[in-house]
Design a protein that fits this description.
Elements: H1 3-23, E1 33-35, H2 42-51, E2 59-62, E3 66-70, E4 76-80, E5 85-89, H3 97-100, H4 105-114, E6 119-126, E7 129-135, E8 140-144, E9 150-153
Antiparallel strand pairs: 1-2, 2-3, 3-4, 4-5, 5-6, 6-7, 7-8, 8-9
Length: about 150
């Protein structure tokens, strides 16, 4: 192969490999303080055990309102103090169907219908409602009320 073709192919592979990293907004410092797996509510521990093979593949955090199940890429699942899933922030992957089924159905349906070319990077509880962060052609932030009805886009 000609050297210019090899350089072009390497550049394309490098850009293609870096695109998912660029699309994901790093959450920066994780919220809350570190806790041991034994300090999680039973409902959160059961959720993790049911959906993943190893409880110890994650780190765990909590603050006054939420528990966080954090992965190595800086993403996390967000749970209420009572153990109900309240959202997530992911880097490098999309939520599974089982996770989406636990979120407000109206919000998930709205995102699927209105933003078919976008990926859902975060769905977080905020105030009395939710904030969804999408990435695709451009980044979008959507706001939903507590029932999952669309409020506005930022």
């Amino acid at each position: 192969m000609k050297p210019i073709l090899i350089k072009t192919l390497l550049a394309v592979l490098l850009v293609a490999g870096a695109c998912p990293y660029a699309a994901c907004k790093s959450p920066g410092k994780l919220p809350g303080r570190s806790i041991a797996v034994g300090q999680l509510p039973d409902t959160v521990r059961r959720f993790v055990a049911r959906h993943f093979t190893n409880l110890h593949q994650f780190t765990y955090r909590n603050d006054r309102s939420f528990y966080y199940v954090c992965d190595e890429a800086g993403g996390y699942y967000l749970f209420s103090a009572g153990g109900a899933i309240r959202g997530f922030r992911f880097c490098m992957r999309q939520p599974s169907r089982q996770i989406l089924d636990l979120l407000p159905g109206a919000a998930v349906a709205y995102i699927r219908e209105s933003y078919p070319g976008y990926f859902l990077g975060a769905f977080l509880s905020e105030g009395e409602g939710y904030r969804a962060e999408l990435f695709g052609e451009d980044d979008r932030t959507l706001r939903f009320d507590g029932e999952g009805s669309f409020l506005h886009e930022e």
